[in-house]
Write a structure and sequence with these properties.
- With 511 residues, this protein is an alpha/beta fold.
- Helix content is 39%, strand content 14%.
- It contains 21 helices and 13 strands.
- Helix 19 links the parallel strand 10 and strand 11 (380-382).
- It is globular, with a radius of gyration of 24 Å.
- The chain starts with 11 loop residues before the first helix and ends in a 10-residue tail after the last helix.
């Protein structure tokens, strides 16, 4: 008869192997200077764990105390909490148990749209639209609106977030994400179809939700000794930066000094230039204090590139440890890029210039030449959808404007794919989860697909095929031979440029 105690004498290493077969190692992450870091660790929302895996890990932990202890990291290394009574109560329970909370390294705060006005009129609005009655339950929205009102009035979120930031003694990464329920999506679609007078009955907004979440998280981190060093906000509202500037005390510099990684993507285009200029001093304060930064990304909507000089945000700051730098959707002079890259030529290993449009008089070949000749440590560069401002504006002028959607899909870069405007789809049961994505370097993407940038970015010109440079016989001797015409950039061209900058063969290199 088999000894029932045999499983209890298994080594810790073997138990970990068993758990790894159920779910991925929760402590596995992508290095901060890898091209896929933004996609996997910062800008990709936490997904719901497969029910079977969550159930299996739960059952594993029920075997005995030793198995329960071994399984804790697979459930609590990454915590995702929704702004709701249920979500905050769950977070309160977790951070009240030190043996669980001590394992948390990443915290994702999932924030839904706020019901600003018209909460009491939701049922009336739904009753006026017969075709939506079977899809939407008025009680869901009433409960959700009541939850939000209760949390805001009692400040329960601020209390629990402060408690959590104190309890998470191993915390490394904090992330704020927008959460959109299927019911919210249907309601927003319905409102868009209605006349303005009827839509005014209900005010469902992201701006106040983002402002409140950002403020409470910042206050919680400021008033604790949290060891966190990374912050990601892939769905930030530009107005939230102004609110932080006005509400957060000067001690924000202490918070910034802890950072090794900061990723911000502002997904609203209303008064973008004015708001970012008004927040310029806040950026200066943060970046001057964040002397330990190793990775920085600041982005804006692809459809609305920021029209400010680069140094109005970065203020000529030099980070001695910077390894990865990224910007998205910006109208710039070539020299602005060159000067920033040159300041970090000794340490920078990755450079992302996504959706950057060069102004008239500048040429990409000048940027490329500097990167190839002076960036000693550069391992990769991303030029996804770079272009010239005049060509970009002409394309938009002749196209129907739509909201930025997910930029993923079978035709996208696996290693350079994070949405410019997206929401987490989930329920109130959203929970922690790991990621299974690898840091690939696919060359099979295209800038011409329907989701590439909502408009066709490829001119009616025959594209040159990537050329082999293995023997260096066909390697352009200088940037003047790269085919930059100063008017537009097509997909095959920019992919070849990426490889040329780091001295690899565009045709045969897979890295």
């Amino acid at each position: 008869m088999p000894d029932s105690r045999s499983a209890l004498v298994l080594s810790n290493e073997l138990l970990k192997d068993v758990l790894d077969c159920i779910d991925a190692d929760p402590e596995r992450t992508v290095n901060i200077d890898r091209r896929a870091y933004l996609s996997v660790e910062s800008f990709r929302p936490p997904s719901l764990p497969e029910p079977s895996r969550a159930h299996d890990i739960g059952n594993f932990r029920l075997v005995c105390r030793r198995f329960a202890e071994a399984g804790i990291p697979y459930q609590f290394t990454k915590i995702a909490t929704r702004f709701s009574r249920h979500g905050l109560e769950r977070l309160d329970k977790i951070c009240s148990q030190h043996h669980l909370a001590k394992h948390t390294r990443k915290f994702s705060y999932l924030v839904p749209y706020f019901y600003v006005e018209g909460r009491e009129q939701i049922e009336r609005l739904l009753e006026s639209e017969g075709r939506y009655r079977d899809l939407l339950d008025p009680s869901f929205f009433r409960t959700k609106a009541d939850d939000q009102r209760h949390i805001l009035q009692t400040k329960e979120d601020a209390r629990i977030l402060g408690k959590a930031m104190t309890a998470f003694v191993s915390l490394q990464h904090v992330q704020i994400l927008r959460l959109q329920d299927e019911a919210d999506r249907i309601l927003l679609d319905m409102m868009e179809e209605q006349e303005i007078s009827r839509a005014a009955m209900l005010d469902l907004k992201w701006t106040p939700a983002c402002i409140h979440a950002t403020s409470t998280i910042a206050q919680a981190l400021l008033h604790t000794r949290s060891p966190f060093s990374r912050f990601s906000g892939p769905m930030m509202n530009s107005q939230s930066a102004l609110v932080i500037k006005d509400r957060i005390p000067p001690t924000v510099s202490l918070l910034a000094s802890r950072l090794t990684c900061l990723e911000l993507h502002f997904d609203d285009s209303e008064a973008l230039n004015e708001r970012m200029r008004a927040a310029s001093q806040l950026f200066r304060t943060v970046f001057m204090a964040a002397k330990n930064l190793q990775a920085v990304h600041v982005g804006f909507p692809s459809r609305s590139p920021l029209n400010l000089k680069l140094e109005e945000i970065f203020h000529c700051v030099h980070w001695e440890k910077l390894r990865a730098f990224g910007i998205q959707a910006w109208r710039l002079e070539a020299d602005e890029i060159i000067q920033l890259a040159r300041r970090h030529s000794g340490t920078l290993r990755g450079l992302r210039l996504r959706d950057v449009q060069l102004r008239e008089g500048s040429m990409w070949k000048d940027v490329l030449a500097m990167l190839r000749n002076e960036m000693e440590q550069l391992d990769w560069v991303s030029l996804r959808r770079v272009d010239y401002t005049k060509h970009f504006d002409e394309l938009w002028a002749n196209s129907m404007e739509v909201m930025d959607g997910s930029l993923g899909g079978s035709e996208s870069d696996d290693d350079d794919d994070f949405p410019a405007h997206f929401s987490v789809q989930g329920s109130d049961q959203q929970s922690e989860d790991g990621f299974d994505s690898e840091d690939g370097h696919s060359l099979a993407d295209t800038d011409q697909g329907p989701d590439a940038n909502e408009i066709a970015l490829s001119p009616n010109t025959t594209a040159s095929l990537p050329f082999c440079t293995c023997s260096r016989s066909s390697d352009p001797a200088s940037a003047d031979e790269l085919g930059d015409n100063g008017m537009f950039v097509f997909y095959q061209q920019r992919k070849m440029w990426e490889q040329w900058v780091i001295g690899r063969c565009p045709e045969h290199s897979s890295t």
